[in-house]
Amino acid sequence: MTTNDPTGRKPDSTRVLQRFSLAGKVALVTGASRGLGRAMAQALGEAGASVAVTARGADGVRRAAEELRAQGIRAHGVRADVTDPADVDRMVQEVAGDLGPIDVLVNNAGISVPGTALETSEESWREVLATNLDGVWRCSRAVGAGMVERGSGTIVNIGSMSAMIVNQPRWQPPYLASKAAVHQLTKALAAEWAPYGIRVNALAPGYFLTEASPVDQPEYQQWCVEPAAMKRYGLPDELGPAVVFLASDASSFMTGSVVVIDGGFTLF
Questions:
Q1: Considering 175, 207, 220, 233, which one is annotated as catalytic?
Q2: Domain membership flag for residue 193
Q3: Is 175 a residue of the active site?
Q4: What averages of pLDDT result for each successive group of 10 residues across the chain (268 residues)?
Q5: HEC letters along 169-214
Q6: What is the CATH number of the domain that holds 59?
Q7: In terms of residue numbers, what domain contains 181?
């Protein structure tokens, strides 16, 4: 087969499933002590990556790392607050020192403070933006600097379908604004860093059942389940394969994309 690739790149003859492998890679997942972050860390580890799990709580990250190691996954737990620039720098240095240079960054750390616009305090607004947006910015820059130097790397930002809709009945303007900004930041970094061999994509999850999102309860049925085309919520392990796809060579021609995984919620 011939190509007109001006870079002279040859077609990849690797078998399809092998292109999903993350063997030899180091992945850092923020907000990974539980919920979606924990599930994504598990998936990356099962794909062969060494995994650093981070969160604000020391006990949570230690427990998550121990659980991964018990399954034969090389893992390291790091307590870190993504809203603190010094903490982010320390986190990146610690992970690199223990596991090696970071090849995959998953920016998952996030919070939501429900309330109407007039009920939302200035403190709550700043807290949500500092975690959901500033945290993505800081971690991407801290990890991205090394990726630029090495000429390779993948970043997966966890946005949300809430960047495209208005969640009901719980109003949460800071969360919606932060996730919409994450999607656009993803595209900005993708365009800027593509020449350095770095790909930046995002996942936009819909309603998933986690400790922080009990969407299996009856009061959520009308707003979180019935509007979705598939008439159900997602389970955390359904997000893991998509993260592996974006982190691996299986998505080698993708950057700046936002992949929506919402059971068809945003179709209507």
A1: 175
A2: yes
A3: yes
A4: 60 86 98 98 98 97 98 98 98 98 98 96 98 98 98 98 93 97 98 98 98 95 97 98 98 98 97
A5: CCCCHHHHHHHHHHHHHHHHHHHHHHHHCEEEEEEEECCECECCEC
A6: 3.40.50.720
A7: 20-261
